[in-house]
Each structure stands twice: as C-alpha cells, then as structure tokens.
Amino acid sequence: MADIETFVYTKYVLHRTKFSILLLLQVPAIILSLLIFIFFTKNPTIRQAPHNRALIILLIVNFMQLSITLPLNLHFYSQGYVNPATHIYCTWWTFIEFTFYVTSEYLMATISVQRHMLVFSSHVLNIRWMRIVLHHIPLLLCLTYPMLFYFFVIILYPCDGSQWDYTSNLCGFADCYLVSNKVLGTLDWSINNGLPMLVNAFANLLLVVRVVHQKRRQHRPVTWKQQRRMTIQLF
User: Which spans are transmembrane here (predicted)?
Assistant: First the structure.
C-alpha cells in the first residue's frame, strides 16, 4: 500500500514539474514568435526573400504547435490524466500532435537541403519552373504528406478504441497502427522520424564542409569568425 502511495505521489510531482517547465517555456516562446511575425510583417522585402519563405512556414507550424498541441499536454499534466477520457479525443489528439511534429521535422530537413541551393546555386531560383520544382513543391509536400499519412493511419485505421491508456500523456501513444501493425509502425518511425533527422544533420554538416572547401579551392583563407554565425545557427 505504501509503495502504491509513493508511486502516485511521485507521478503527481513529476506531472506538476513538467507542467511548470512547459508553461514557463511556452509563454516566452509565444511572445518571441509574435515579435518575429511582426518583424516580417513590417519588412516585406525580408519576408519575400527566398531563404526566408520556408522559415516563415516553419515558424507558423511551430506557433501552431505552441498554441494548439502544447496546451493539450499542459492540460494532461495539470489534471494527471486524460480528460475527456474518450476514444475520439485520443484519436484526434494524436493525429494533431503527430502531424505537426512530423511536418516540422520535414520542413527543417527540406530547409537544410534547400540552403545548399540558396548558398551555392541561387541563380536557379530565377527560373520559374526550377523555383516551383525545387523550392515550392518540396515545401508543399512537407505540409500535405504528414497530414494525409496520419489521416489514413490514425483517423481511418479500423480500431475499437480499447487500447488507449488514459493515465499517460498522449493516451500512451497507443494508436492502433502502432500497436497492431509493425510494418506501419516501423515505416512511421524510420521514414517520418528518423529520416528527416538524418537528412537535417547531414545536410547542415555538409554545408559547413562545402563552404570551407570552396574557400580553399579559391585560395581564400577560412575565416572562422565570419562563419561562426552560420555554424551556430546550423547547430
């Protein structure tokens, strides 16, 4: 009995701690996001620059995470359980959470790849069809693919709703396709989570290598002071 009470109390403290940390970070994050949006609104030239369009889309997605999905997590940690404890709530909660998260990951990976083009071959964006194929379409796929994928595997996937854990955050991540379909679960983890992270890390590292290599090939000294800002941003 004492062990159960200790477990319950520890879980309560953990939830309250997570609630406090998330809330403490959410407020300044929302304020900073609004300030960035105001900055872009008042500076149309900067807003319309090719290298900033994708960043604005990413900021919008992140802001939606802050204002839509994060409050759902805060609500869980404040209550200590899922409320309302229904199949429909858990289904849509995981759908929204997974969609925004993977969309953000794909956008970051795409931006990292496109940065190579913007740095070394920016002239290709002057060609309309190249700009559409290499810049606009990849960003559009980043926004549509995660939504369609999770709509089919979460919303439309046949499920009786008995697998949800109403005492865990995100209902225990117990979507039917993760619980009963190992193929879909593996594809989701590898393609929608692992792949974007690998692409993001590799593309950013390669960009630094290419910048250094180009300077050496042009017999120009590598001034790390000038590259410090880019390196920090990529990190």
Answer: 20-41, 53-72, 92-111, 132-157, 194-212
